[in-house]
Amino acid sequence: MMLSLFPTQNSYLSYQSRPARHFNPDTIVLTKGSCQTAQQRDFVEAICNLYPQAQVIKRFDISHNRFELGCPDPLELHYKGKNTLLFGVHKSALRFSDEDGN
């Protein structure tokens, strides 16, 4: 059984986005599958609107686990990752992923 972020057909209509406490991303990355349906596009747009200062990078040509932050220093990579929000689609259960690179 596949769980869905939107369990009923119109449940996304009642969702009210709100910023997460103590999280203010510098970068929002949209990867393959993140905006395939109208519901996904509306959800992603609502989240992006919460953080207007964030740079939005559209990389629909790659999967979520292929995005590179471009930081050679491990500490810099850590902090950059903590300030990045990435949207994508994971094709298998996280525990049993058979995607390349996972």
Concise synopsis of the structure shown:
The chain has 102 residues and is of the alpha/beta class. The protein has helices spanning 38-50, 74-82, and strands spanning 27-31, 55-59, 84-87.
Account of the protein in words:
With 102 residues, the protein is an alpha/beta fold. It has a domain of 63 residues. Helices cover 22% and strands 14% of the residues. It has a 3-stranded parallel sheet. It is globular.
List keywords for this structure.
22% helix; globular; three-stranded parallel β-sheet; alpha/beta; 102 residues
State the strand order across the main sheet.
2-1-3
Number of helices: 2
Low-confidence regions: none
The computed structural class is alpha/beta
- Anisotropy-based shape: globular
User: What's the helix-strand series?
Assistant: EHEHE
- Average residue pLDDT: 82
- Amino- and carboxy-terminal Cα gap: 22 Å
Please indicate the percent range of residues in DSSP E strands (runs of 2 or more): 5-15%
- Main sheet properties: 3 strands, parallel
How many DSSP E strands? 3
Helix content: 10-25%
From the alpha-carbon coordinates, what is the Rg to the nearest angstrom?
15 Å
